[in-house]
Amino acid sequence: MANLRLVNLGKRFEDVQAIKGLNLEIEDSELMVMLGPTGAGKTTTLRSVAGLEHPEEGEIFIDEVKVNELPPAERDVAFVFQNYSLYPRYSVFENMASPLRARGMPNDEIQRIVKQTAVVLHIDHLLDRRPINLSGGEMQRVAIGRALVRKPKIFLMDEPLSNLDAKLREEMRTELKRLQKDIKATFFYVTPDQAEALSMADRIAVLCHGEIQQVDIPSEIYNHPRNMFIADFVGSPGMNFVDCLYEKKNMLNIGPNLFTLAIPESQRDKITEEATNSELVFGIRPEDISLSKEKRANYIEARMDVMESMGSINIVSLKLGGYVLKAKTDPDFEVRPGDALWADFDKEKIHIFDKTTQRAIV
Q1: Contact indicator for 253, 244 with CB cutoff of 8 Å
Q2: pLDDT at 96
Q3: Rounded CA gap, 154 and 25, in Å?
Q4: Helices H, strands E: what count in the chain?
Q5: In this structure, are residues 218 and 204 in contact, taking their beta carbons and an 8 Å threshold?
Q6: pLDDT value of position 126
Q7: What is the pLDDT of residues 293-308, one digit of tens each?
Q8: Which residues lie below 8 Å from residue 291, measured CB to CB, with a gap of 6+?
Q9: pLDDT beneath 50, residues of the chain
Q10: What is the pTM of this model?
Q11: Cα distance between residue 362 and residue 358, in whole Å
Q12: Domains and CATH numbers, the chain
């Protein structure tokens, strides 16, 4: 397999800057997930690596060899598309064998490689079927198998699970991660689904408006987002935000004037003099809010707005002043709209952002 390095990559479509100054390094045998909303520039990045788009700026290196001027066929990458792109008249075997036949490989070698790959993907019993007789998950496995038989340096995957139902997507996430580790392949995988990114990635690159916001391991992306976009986009539901001001003695005035909250000692050294004079935003994830139906000391009174039952948890929307905050509770926590509730915030899990730059301070 191989490593991939993108240096100051830029691509424009008329008046739209699809990707801008993009820098990213993917290590050999790493599963890198690029996460971002629709239109962020994820597919453009993949297509640029594959040679299907030609960036106006920057350089692309595969195994430290610059490939900007190489045609797609000479880059030795395999592209797995969102739509499966299978030949409808071919059997599963012939679909998987097609890239090997294009190389002029002997038939006995094609037989061996295709059957071996089909066993790995658990589709060896489907080799005689045509795509019309396959389920969505089976077609996706065939598309992946067609890429695998080539043994490329890098696998490029463009939202490969988005056309599957929720249960099958969950199963395929596990299968793909297992497969990637088994064959020690380099995967560059793009998706708008934060659950896919968090569950599959060795590292995540968060993309917004063609620019990388943060590259890190999943736990760091979730627990220490570098800005408000990441904090909101990664997580279900996303982080709650409330305007706040810094007050003397390391206190935050939330709302302002809804309640005050002490900044934990472990975080106080991050509050610079510049930050104390700025408009700030207080952030807290739904799972870091504790709720009580009874009044408790140091808890903040709120009103229940909406409750969503998710089976294993409930998501409760609270009205607090002019804000609506979401909290996660146990499934047996039952309240009605308009009921009074009391909320507490895990002081060690609070986040503070600069309102102007939206960058994280704490």
Answers
A1: yes
A2: 95
A3: 13
A4: 9, 20
A5: yes
A6: 95
A7: 999 998 999 999 999 9
A8: 316, 318, 327, 329, 333, 341, 342, 343, 344
A9: none
A10: 0.92
A11: 12
A12: 4-233 (3.40.50.300), 240-354 (2.40.50.140)
